Amino acid sequence: MGIGGRRTRPWGPVRGASEHANALATLLRDWLDEAGLRLRDLTGRLRPEHFRDLRVPARTTVSDRLAGVNPQWDFIEAVADVCSRDAGQRDRRLSDARPHWDRLQLAGRQRTDRRAAGRIAELDREHRNALQLAAMSLQLVGRFQREAADAGAQRAEAELRLRLALDARDRAEGRATRAVAEIASLTRELERMRRQRSGGRSTGVMPVVRPERAAGPAFGGRSPRPSPDNRTSTGLITAVRPDNPGLPAAGRRPRPHNSARQAAHSVRDARAAGDANAALRMAAAAGFTGAPEHIRRLLAFLRALGLAEDAERVLAAAAMDRPATRVPPLLAHLGAWREPDAMWIKSALGRSASAERLLEVVSALRAEERFPDAYGVLLAAARQRAVALVPSLTAALHRVGRSEDAEWLLITAAQDRGPADVRALAEQLRAGGQQENAAALLRRREAAEAAASGGGAPDGIRLPQQPTGGTRRLLTHSRFVMPGTGAPQPAALPVPPEPGGAPPPGG
C-alpha cells in the first residue's frame, strides 16, 4: 500500500511495562502512520495465519498491543506484513524491530531471575527461622526432660520417706502390741498375788487393760483417758469393779495388729522356713477375707519382697473363693489404684470359674452397677474360656434369663477366636443340645471372615455395628493384657442393654 498520511485522531500515550515495550509500540504506530492505516483498518486486515494460535485478537487486544501492553512477536510480524508493500520492506521493518524485542526479552529474563532470587532468599529466611524454631523446641524438650528427671527424683525421695515412715509406724505398732501383752501379763500376775495375800479370796478389785487405749493413735484408737471412778497416772491400768460389764475380763489377750506389711513378712518368713503351703494358705486367706485396701497394700508388699506367686494366690482366692457380694468393691478399689490386678481377677473368673460362680459374681457386679466389670468377665469368658466349658455357661445364661448375654458372648467368640476354636466350640454346643447356638456361631464366624476379606457379610447375616447413641461399650480402656498370655487384647464391642434402663458401662 502506498505511503500516505494517517487520517485519524492522534495516538494515546504508550503503557508498556518497560522502555523497550514502549519503543516497540512506537515503532508499530510509525508503521501504521507510514501506511496510512487506522486501528480499524489493521483489525480488518489481520488473518488467523498471522498468529501461532490461529486466532485473530479482538480490537481491544490490538489496541493494548499498540500501546505497549504485553507485546508478542507474532503480532509484530502481522503488523509488519499488513503495513509493507513487499517482502523486502517487511523484512526491513522486522530487522528494525528485532533489537527492541531482544532487549525486551533480556529484561524479562532478568526480572524473572530477580524474582527467583528473591524467592530463594525468602525460602532461605524461612529455613533459618525453622532451624531457630527447632533449636528452641530442642531446648524446651531438654528443659522438660530435666524437670521430669527432677520430679522423678523428688517422687523417689518422697516414696523413700513414705517407706521409712511406714517402717517406723510398724515398729511403733509392734512395740505397742508387745507393751499391751506385757501389761496384761503383769495384770494377771498382780491379781494372782493379791488372791494369795487375801487367802484365796478375790479382792473385789481387778486391774484391767484396754488394748485399744494402750496402743493409742498408732492402733487407730483414742488416747488413754483415766476412769472417772479411779484415775491413774498413766491411764493404762484402772481398778474396775467386777460388776462393770463395759470392760473386758482380766487376762483377755489383746487383738493383734494385722497390717499388710506384717502379713507380707509372715508370708516371707513361711517361705524362708520352707513351708510353702503355709505361705499359700495365708495368701489365700487374705484374698478371701481381706478388705480391698488391705489386699492392695498386701499385693504391693508381696511384689516388693519378690513373692509374685503369693501375690497371684491372693488374686486367685479373690476371684474364686471370695464371697460374690464382696467382689465388686474389691474390683472398684483395684480399678482405681491398680487396674492390672482388677483385670487379672476378671480374666481368671471368665477363664476358669464355674458357670454358677461366674453368674453369681456377674449378678453382684450388676447389682452394684459395675456394668463394665460385669462385661469384662464375660469378655474374658468369650475369648479365653476352655471350649468345653463354654456350653455350660451359655446354658446357664439362658436359664437365668440372660439370653442376650449368651448371644453377645458367642458373637465375641466368633470374632476373636481362631477358626479351629470356633469349629470346636460349635461341636461342643451341638453335643450339649444347643444346635441353634452352634449354627449362629458358625454364621457369625463366616460373616466376620467375609467382612475381613472385604467381601461383606453373606446374605441374611447382619454383623454387629459399632455402638452409637444408647448402645454402650464394653470397657473404658481400649487395651489390656490377659494373665498368662502376655499379649494385648482388643476391647470395645457392642454390648446388649441392661434391663430396666441401667446406665451405660463406665458411665
Per-chain topology:
Elements: H1 19-35, H2 39-45, H3 59-66, H4 73-83, H5 87-197, E1 206-209, H6 211-215, E2 237-240, H7 260-272, H8 276-289, H9 292-304, H10 308-320, H11 327-337, H12 339-352, H13 355-367, H14 371-384, H15 390-399, H16 403-416, H17 419-431, H18 435-452, E3 472-473, E4 479-481, E5 488-490, E6 494-495
Antiparallel strand pairs: 1-2, 3-6, 4-5
Helix pairs in contact: 1-4, 1-5, 4-5, 7-8, 7-9, 8-10, 9-10, 9-11, 10-12, 11-12, 12-14, 13-14, 13-15, 14-16, 15-16, 16-18, 17-18
Give short descriptive properties of this protein.
single chain; 507 residues; disordered N terminus; mainly alpha; two-stranded antiparallel ribbon; elongated; 18 helices
What does this structure look like?
By secondary structure, the protein is mainly α. Helix content is 63%, strand content 4%. It is built from 18 helices and six strands. The chain has helices at residues 19-35, 39-45, 59-66, 73-83, 87-197, 211-215, 260-272, 276-289, 292-304, 308-320, 327-337, 339-352, 355-367, 371-384, 390-399, 403-416, 419-431, 435-452, and strands at 206-209, 237-240, 472-473, 479-481, 488-490, 494-495. A two-stranded antiparallel sheet has the order 1-2. Strands 3-6 form a two-stranded antiparallel sheet. The chain has a two-stranded antiparallel sheet with strand order 4-5. A hairpin with a 6-residue loop joins β4 and β5. It is elongated and about 160 Å long. It starts with 18 loop residues before the first helix and ends in a 12-residue tail after the last strand. The model is unreliable at 1-6, 202-257 and 457-507 (pLDDT under 50).
